[in-house]
């Protein structure tokens, strides 16, 4: 890989604190870009790259099956690289700045309906079984706090306080935030802790496997999908769907947009505003199903 690209990736990972997932994605994008422009036969001359070169690369990637969201990220990766190069004085212009970003079709976040959630959370389990209690608590915590899967996996035991009804999560860009929770969740947390401490030696992570090791992303995904399937959910099932459901439920119950933004750990209010479209969509659907005038022919 080009030394310039390697240094740039170190910069966004170590100095900008971008997530490992973003760094990995940018690495793939920029290596593809370099391979396309040089054919792998020579070193990339970043100063000689033109806007037309970048557009040709994007056309090629589109023909290979890359969708609008992926293409947007690729443009952003190259733009960010050249912004960094311009600050360093390596180049004088950014050839990616005038490349038009691919349009992404607007899609509302999918969510789990309240009756399915109630079926899931009210279901009986063996409260003496460590894994059953842990798996139920994972779903409860994702739905009742809105945290991300990575935040749940990285949650530390010392940061879960049932006396205060608060937990501290370590989010994107190394930012911490406090999320409150209710009495029911606190009771399940204490029951889980009892079983965990009786099953395995103490760990700094809150959630662990029976062998005391931390959880991993695929395991959490599998736990959530299995639980939602058993609750009768047939639409998209994932940990992130529970995060969407948390945000939508909060807004439906009267929480402020700014409050939900802080609980989710969003950088921008614009990111949170997508959930207002979900709640409005739900309101329209309920109106059509329930209002007597909407049920009339032609109403």
Q: From the alpha-carbon coordinates, what is the Rg to the nearest angstrom?
A: 23 Å
Name the shape in a single word: elongated
Low-confidence regions? 286-295
Q: What does the oligomeric state look like here?
A: single chain
Proportion of residues in β-strands: under 5%
CATH topology of the largest domain: hpI Integrase, Chain A
> Would you tell me the structural class of the helices and strands?
mainly alpha
The termini sit apart by 63 Å
- Major beta-sheet overview: 3 strands, antiparallel
Helix and strand pattern: HHHHHHHEEEHHHHHHH
Number of domains: 2
Strand adjacency order, main sheet: 1-2-3
CATH A-level architecture of the largest domain = Orthogonal Bundle
| Number of helices, counting only DSSP H or I runs of 4 residues or more | 14
How would you portray this structure in words?
With 299 residues, this protein is mainly α. The protein folds into two domains: 3-88, Tyrosine recombinase, N-terminal domain (DNA polymerase, domain 1, Orthogonal Bundle), CATH 1.10.150.130; 114-289, Intergrase catalytic core (hpI Integrase, Chain A, Orthogonal Bundle). It has 14 helices and three strands. It has helices at 3-15, 20-38, 51-63, 68-88, 114-121, 130-145, 149-153, 183-199, 217-230, 239-252, 257-264, 269-272, 274-290, 292-295, and strands at residues 160-161, 166-170, 176-180. The chain has a three-stranded antiparallel sheet, with no helix packed on it. It is elongated and about 65 Å long. Residues 286-295 have low confidence and may be disordered.
